[in-house]
Amino acid sequence: xxxxxxxxxxxxxxxxxxxxxxxxxxxxxxxxxxxxxxxxxxxxxxxxxxxxxxxxxxxxxxxxxxxxxxxxxxxxxxxxxxxxxxxxxxxxxxxxxxxxxxxxxxxxxxxxxxxxxxxxxxxxxxxxxxxxxxxxxxxxxxxxxxxxxxxxxxxxxxxxxxxxxxxxxxxxxxxxxxxxxxxxxxxxxxxxxxxxxxxxxxxxxxxxxxxxxxxxxxxxxxxxx
Length: 225
What we know:
Elements: E1 3-6, E2 11-15, H1 24-39, E3 43-48, E4 52-57, H2 64-76, E5 90-95, H3 102-109, H4 113-122, E6 125-130, E7 137-140, E8 155-158, E9 162-166, E10 169-172, E11 177-179, E12 182-186, E13 207-212, H5 215-220
Helix pairs in contact: 1-2
């Protein structure tokens, strides 16, 4: 059952599910597009996540009661439309697997280093949320054998391009920042670029695979030494 929760004076949080699943990012992304179409300029921003959609609206153009009234028919049938078989773009991100935590992750999971790399790179992940930092894409579903809690002590600085895991998620740090995830390797590509037409390379619903590469290829693709 959908819950509608006020989030301050100018936002409404739509709680659309209790648990994430593989189809939700695509469904929520499609719902966001429909809400933007229905509300038009009354929408300031829409922020999708794994199970929620945050609607920021202009109180000078629509009040709370009218917002609920406009959303009601949209939410009634938001799950009815069939999903496209291959929604979202598909990216193959090169990764040089030489992260600071790779050996520790292998030991904690009872696996060899090569098996950690294989398990991480064989899966296809789905982007379900963008947050924490500009362009930071949360991706699921990490192999259960690799699931670890976040580090007890976060790092003050994680290098740009670091490929990391925590719980059942994986991500690439789009810029150098603090972080508490376990570092498996480095991706040479820029995932966030303010000068690009689309600053965020990855979007909600996109599919991602990680492709192991050697150090020379990592550098040739633009990786930092």
